[in-house]
Amino acid sequence: MSPSPRTGGDLVVESLSALGARTVFGVPGQHALGTFSALSRSDLRYVGLRTELSAAFAADGYARTTGSPAALLVSTGPGALISLAALQEAAASSVPVVTVSSQIPRAGLGGLRKGYLHELRDQRASVRDVVKSATVVTQPGQLPSALAAAWETALTPPYGPTWVEVPQDVLLGEAGIPPVTDLVATPRPPQPRAELLDEAARLLTGASRPAVLAGGGVVRSGAEEALLELAEALRAPVAVTFGAKGAFPWEHPLSLQSWLEDRHTTDLLEDADVLLVVGSGLGELSSNYHTFRPRGRVVQVEADLGKLEANHPALAVHADARLALEGLTARVERRPSDGVAEKRRAELLARVQERLDAQDLGAEREVLDAVRAAVPDETPTFWDMTILAYWAWSAWDARVSGSMSSAQGAGGLGYGFPAAIGAAASVPGGRRVLAVSGDGGAMYGIAELATVRQHDLPVTWLVVDDGGYGILREYMTGAFGSAFGTELARPDFVALAESFGVPATLTGPESLEKDLASAISAQGPNVVVLPATLRMFAPTHLGA
Ligand SMILES: Cc1ncc(C[n+]2csc(CCOP(=O)(O)OP(=O)(O)O)c2C)c(N)n1
Ligand SMILES: [Mg+2]
Question: Would you tell me which of 9, 290, 324, 356 could form a disulfide with 35, CB atoms 3.0–4.6 Å apart?
Answer without folding.
Answer: 9
